[in-house]
Here is the input.
Amino acid sequence: QFLYFIGMSAEADARPEKEFGNAFFQAQMKHTYAQVSPQAVILCLFVIAVVFIPVGAATIIATDAVFEWSDRYDHLNRCTHSNHGSAETHPLGNSTVASGCFTNVGFRLDQTLVPPIYIYYRMKGFNQNYRLYAKSFNEAQLSDRDYGLSDLDDCDPKKTPTDGTITIGTETKALNTIPYAPCGQVPWSMFNDTISLFRVPDEATAAAISQDTPVLPSGVTPICVGDAFSRSTNKPTVATGCVKEGIAFSQDVESRFKANPSSSASAWTGNGYTGVTDNAFFNEGYYNNEAGHRIPLIPDEDFMVWSRIAPLADFRKPYRKITVGLQRGLYLWRILERFDTTSLGAEKYAVLATTAWIGTKNPTLGALYLTMGSISLVLAFGFVGMYIARSKE
Here is the structure.
């Protein structure tokens, strides 16, 4: 082996000198070095400072003008599926099933707000970004493209109802051959609390309302009734001072969520079924064996908003847009709780907020602009001093 390497070395020495004398082997390829002058660096730093400092100041001024009010409400009644106040009843065949809790949270508004004013719901401690959860739906189902039952495997365990049969008209089918539409954990876990905003006339009326008062006293007037909207068209069903249309992304409304299937032998939907069957949950549009838990409708903008997966466990999503001004005074959140966070250890908040040209309140963005601009300004003056000192040497 030693002699072998000796031989290899000898062969290499015998190679023509021009093979090793070219520019590539000698690392003498043509190249360009960036030679930045001190004047150019100083000028760039001054430009950054001149742009970033005013933008940062304007951003902080704008974010200070944004109003934001948040109230946590899940801990007041600790409403769960088993511990509820029978706030509403749901038809189920020839009987009804009670569920839900009314939760009242009062607050004082110390300034007048002009529209548009936004209502958000905030979730804290709910992880939408879990990988298997985030992909638990089917895009073809949402956009009204062709799909088969085998294409819905990502939706498990909310792909179809479980064991059993259903008779639709004269046809008897296995439950696990009729997919939910939409299927998956994302639709099944959709936020479904109803958040409404009321104006309270005076302190005496406010004192008469407890956190679980089922019927509000006279004089309390509705500003925005959260459930006064059609789930299929998103238009108001009664007069109210807020709108639901426009809370979802336009591309979701126009292209991604185009389907609106009706319940049939090939789809189990939230529209319910008006024909003859032996399954009351199918007839009413509930998840099987979950009375009152309606399957979302695909055109519902509340469902579109929920389906936009939040990257963090603390997030908020748009709920309603108030179109009337709010005067200073007493107000009341009236919430019909259906979404159980107590069992999950998560938290729920109702948020009232305005916006500015930068969007919602964001002091961090302004602070970053100011910091970068200030650092650039200090460095620019430092380099000017160094340049002058070097020039005199």
